[in-house]
Amino acid sequence: MSTEQLFDRKFDAADDSYFQQSLPQVYRAVLQQFRRASASFVLFNLLYAAVFAAELFFFLLFLPFLIQSAWLAISLSGLFLTIFSYFVLQFYFSAKKIEQLIQLKDQFIASCHQLTGGPGKGGLSIAAALIKLSSYLEEFEWQFYRIPRFLQSFQRPLSSFSAFCHWQDVFRFKQLLLYAAIDEHMSQIRIAPTDLEVHASLANTYLALSKLFTEPKRSPNPSAFRRKKAAFDANFRIAAQLAVDEFHILNHYAPNDPWVHEQLSYGYRDLSMPQDEIREMEILLQLQPQNMDLLLRLGKIYFEQGSNAKGLQIYEQLKQANHPQAEELISIYGKLAAFLPPITPGARE
């Protein structure tokens, strides 16, 4: 093990508790700055919309008096100037907003490095902090604006407006954070290429990234998602494949480690790859044959995937072991009948 590795392990053992205790205030500071940066752009759009609406209102109000005077041309030019200046400034502030998000991400990493004692120390802890900050942004776009309690009836439309305006900023910032976490993992892998803990953490990061590219499907702005659907799907497949590659590395170096196969099974579940999940759980069950909870989970997946004979065998094993959830397992088998198509009255064969 190199000196760098030893120093990093020393940090993890001695200073990680201090690092974790100091992180909450860093999280709060970053989230507050992110909220202000994103909200200022929305405020800019609202102000310009108000100015244009006011100009248009007065133009239409005084239109009968302007038709036969030179003020008509001046008023029209004022409207066009407002529209032109809006698009110019909107392009400028859009580019600036991306720069602000990058600076905010870099600022967070710098704060983490300051807590760990400098670059190159506590890399895996910093990667975990980046992932955790990204997790704090879950549903964050719905919570930008708060109103007094007596106005709570307006909270739902305000939350929808907030999500419509901010979901792309939240998505972009989460993407930046996860990319930075991947970079931190890569730095650690260059130091310790066969560290299974690092590879497992990197696999989970890729999983988080793959989930990120499915989130726009639930966005309050579906038209924006449809325009980028092909790119989101391609990025999802890339991130998912990278996660699977990391799983294969884990399996190669520790084929008989139950923890590895448990991580593999959860990873395949998150990627909606049930056959691979079943394979890993079967291996895990061979390593831990007395694990009844694992057996129950495997039986549920068997029934969900239509492997009813295997599911019934597991039910018999659980029944013989007096497992309290054996009846819950067999109830899943009965629920599969709900997927049969309904009988249409008057239908002919």
* Average pLDDT for all residues: 81
Give me the number of helical elements.
14
Oligomeric category? single chain
Gyration radius from CA atoms, angstroms: 28 Å
Q: Strand tally, please?
A: 0
Largest sheet: none
Give the overall form: elongated
**Series of H and E elements:** HHHHHHHHHHHHHH
Structural class: mainly alpha
What ranges have pLDDT less than 50 throughout 5 or more consecutive residues?
1-11
Q: N- to C-terminal separation?
A: 73 Å
Helix proportion range: over 70%
Q: How much beta, percentage-wise? A: under 5%
Characterization of this structure:
The structure is a single chain. The protein is mainly alpha-helical and 349 residues long. Helices cover 77% and strands 0% of the residues. It is built from 14 helices and no strands. The protein starts with a helix and ends in a 14-residue tail after the last helix. The model is unreliable at 1-11 (pLDDT under 50).
In short:
The chain is an all-alpha fold.
Which features characterize this protein?
14 helices, about 350 residues, mainly alpha, about 0% strand, about 75% helix, disordered N terminus
Strand-helix topology:
Layout: H1 3-14, H2 16-61, H3 63-66, H4 71-116, H5 123-136, H6 155-191, H7 196-212, H8 222-227, H9 229-253, H10 258-270, H11 274-287, H12 292-304, H13 308-320, H14 326-335
Helix pairs in contact: 2-4, 4-6, 5-6, 6-7, 7-9, 7-10, 9-10, 10-11, 11-12, 12-13, 12-14, 13-14
